[in-house]
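User: Can you model how zinc ion sits in this protein?
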Amino acid sequence: MNKTSLILLLTAFCLTCFGMNEETRDSVQSRRELVQAESEFAANYARAPRFKALFHYYPHAEEAHVQFDKQAIDFFHKLTYGEGWLMDVTASLADYPYEKLKEYSIVVSLNAAPADSAQRVAFEQYMESGGGWMGFHASAYNDRNTGWPWLNKFLGCGLFYCNNWPPQPALVECETGEHPVTRTLPHTFVAPASEFYQWQPSPRMNSDVEILLSISPKMYPFGLKDVVKFGDFPIVWTNRKYRMVYLNMGHGDEGFIDATQNLLFVNAFRWVVSRDQEGDPFMK
Ligand code: ZN
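Assistant: Here's the modeled complex, given as structure tokens:
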């Protein structure tokens, strides 16, 4: 008998002695089956970085956006420890034509969008060819003057419509427990202080979009200076036509103070990467 089997046997014996209920017995049984089903080695150790990710931000954006961007770079940098993957950071996509972009499994837009038409064309080609994207907050901001209809097609929603002000925490609701991005999250949690955008029309009107998280209607009236009184308020979603997740968080210096929200960010990043066209890098 090996050590794991012995521990399971002892656990089962102790639980029986102290009056194990039906549910606990099932759970012990399923864990035992899991142990038996596993191969000799549970972990899958990488011999080389599994993938590359490109982060871009705009250092001259408004201060609260740059605060978030810098914290995001630190946060994701910690996830590279051990060189499981490679992280490149740039302040300009001008250096990344399509031929370079396509080397990356994911592009992460931190409050920044392609700055001119050449950058937009390269990014469009990257996404239309199966590229991966995770965008925060102002990376998706667009209004009448943006002049980039493809961005709306890509996001699956209309223009920026309104926002709460000042930034504040918000009760948010997971709309599905089935999706890999949300299945490890509680049904509701309080997201740290941020400015949140509403869109018109809402991405919910688009049948290709799956809404993952939204601001709870319990928040209405939402805001102290600029008050949002009603409306559909999705803040995290994916457009199934692309390998992407958009997250509206990203304003100020509290974006990474909450473990639940941090887990959401890691889940979203990991999910986009896991659907790489060349196969799931985490299974290699
Ligand atoms: Zn903002």
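A couple of observations from the model: The chain is about 30% helix and 20% strand. The two ends are 31 Å apart (CA to CA).
User: Helpful, thanks.
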